[in-house]
Design brief:
This protein is an alpha+beta fold and 402 residues long. It contains twelve helices and 22 strands. A seven-stranded mixed sheet has the order 6-5-15-16-17-14-18, with helices on both faces. Strand 1, helix 1 and strand 2 form a beta-alpha-beta unit. The longest helix is centred in the C-terminal third of the chain and has 30 residues. The mean pLDDT is 97. Flavin-adenine dinucleotide (FAD) binds next to helix 1, strand 9, strand 14 and helix 8.
């Protein structure tokens, strides 16, 4: 990079890389510092909503994703015993978006796409094996300390974006509280080539059950026929090693869909799940985005999508501030817009989605299903549901905040 960076981004996850790309395309020099030696193989996110695809399209990312991703126009909410409760058809809102579907692509196949676009930008540098350990701020600059293969290094810029994930060192350094809670149960994710479609499952389905709900997502994997990810809750007392053992994974998979012979399992992982929002997304010259700013359970696929919306919102505003076209108060608008909708939509609906899947009593389950069926019965009700579940409502709400 020829010039001193105007912005340092901590973290080369999807949110950090996209922030860097959007800034670079506005001619802002950016330095990305990533702790790991390369892009990570991350099995977490995989579902992208229409507004995220619209936001990434101008950078050529969406077209690249479409080459290998799976389009999921229809998705279901089911009950383990009663079967199908409702099936949603995202194409019913095709008048509102050029991408009327959920798009499935593993997070670790998205990051190389963004990284390739970054490599074509002369004003961006990504340094791997650079573990950010601290920062200090003055009125005119921010200094970042990182442990690097060459020892401890210091880097200066006008602004710092902390996109360094849920355990964000940047958030800790600026002393911002991460308000919320951690669910007692963890989630186990197992991936299998076994095909659930012949059993009536859409490529994304959420299955309610008082004892063991499930969520299914068909992913492209290395290519056709692709792979099904199945998520189950794990009781607090179960040890990780037990959860991830072949026997326990097999028992859960067979319990959900009995079949002859063992399930072929390609990947399995376990996650602790949180609902947390940083008390502020800004402290002076430091801003937070993505998981560093907010965490939620994956029922609804709002986590990374929300991070993508942060990245685009923030980089457009930060570019204006860097170019002297706007005062830094514009960055407070980023915080108001993105923090508000994270609380009002992402937290609210991801919690509601999980509680609906896990509802314990028959009365609760029936009330949930009645509400869904009522909503699905009219065009107006379906569109209202689809606007929220596809995150269009949250983006509209953010844009309306001034
Ligand atoms: C089971 C599961 C399924 C999910 N499915 C979905 C889904 O379908 N859709 C969705 O929208 N979301 C989903 N999510 C959430 C999604 O995975 C996250 O929201 C997303 O990874 C956030 O991206 P990020 O770039 O903010 O953070 P991360 O992906 O965590 O990236 C942070 C980066 O910062 C780096 N880093 C950390 N510390 C430092 C440091 N000190 N210095 C330098 N670099 C550092 C890390 O190595 C990493 O590369 C899911 C989550 C789980 C657990």
């Amino acid at each position: 990079m020829k010039n001193k960076p105007q912005v340092i981004v901590a973290g080369a996850g999807p949110v950090g890389l996209l922030t860097a790309l959007a800034l670079a395309k506005c001619d802002i020099p950016v330095l990305v510092l990533e702790a790991e030696p390369g892009l990570t193989l991350d099995l977490r996110a995989g579902t992208y909503h229409p507004p995220s695809l619209e936001m990434m399209a101008p950078y050529g990312v969406t077209d690249e994703m479409l080459k290998t991703a799976i389009k999921v126009p229809r998705w279901q909410i089911r009950d383990r015993k009663a079967g199908l409760i409702v099936e949603w058809d995202v194409s019913e809102i095709a008048d509102l978006t050029p991408y009327p579907y959920r798009l499935h692509l593993e997070q670790h196949r998205l990051t190389p796409i963004i990284f390739d676009k970054l490599k074509a930008c002369a004003n961006v540098e990504v340094r791997f094996s650079h573990d950010v350990t601290g920062l200090s701020q003055a009125s005119d600059k921010v200094t970042v300390t990182a442990e690097t293969p060459a020892g401890i290094e210091k880097y200066e810029a006008d602004w710092l974006v902390g996109a360094d994930g849920g355990r964000s060192i940047i958030r800790k350094c600026i002393g911002v509280e991460f308000e919320g809670f951690t669910w007692p149960e963890r989630f186990v994710v197992a991936s299998t080539i076994y095909d659930y479609a012949p059993h009536g499952y859409t490529l994304n389905a959420y299955v309610a059950d008082p004892d063991e709900w499930a969520a299914l997502f068909k992913m492209p994997d290395d290519g056709p026929p692709g792979i099904w990810r199945v998520i189950f809750p794990v009781p607090p007392e179960e040890e990780d090693a037990v959860t991830l053992s072949e026997e326990t994974v097999e028992r859960r998979m067979q319990g959900f869909m009995p079949k002859a012979g063992r399930y072929p399992i390609k990947y399995k992982s376990i996650y602790r799940v949180h609902q947390r929002v940083a008390k502020d997304f800004r402290a002076g010259r430091v801003l937070l985005a993505g998981d560093a700013a907010h965490l939620n359970n994956p029922m609804g696929a709002f986590g990374l999508n929300g991070g993508i919306h942060d990245a685009i919102n923030l980089s457009q505003k930060l570019a204006k501030v860097c170019r002297g076209e706007a005062g830094d108060a514009l960055l407070d608008l980023y915080v108001r817009q993105r923090r508000t909708v994270n609380l009002e939509y992402v937290q609210e609906y991801s919690i509601k989605n999980l509680k609906r899947l896990a509802a314990k009593t028959d009365a609760e389950r029936m009330a949930n299903f009645d509400e869904l069926r009522r909503q699905a019965a009219t065009r107006e009700g379906r569109r209202e549901f689809l606007l929220v579940s596809s995150m269009i409502a949250s983006v509209r709400r953010a844009n309306a905040i001034i």
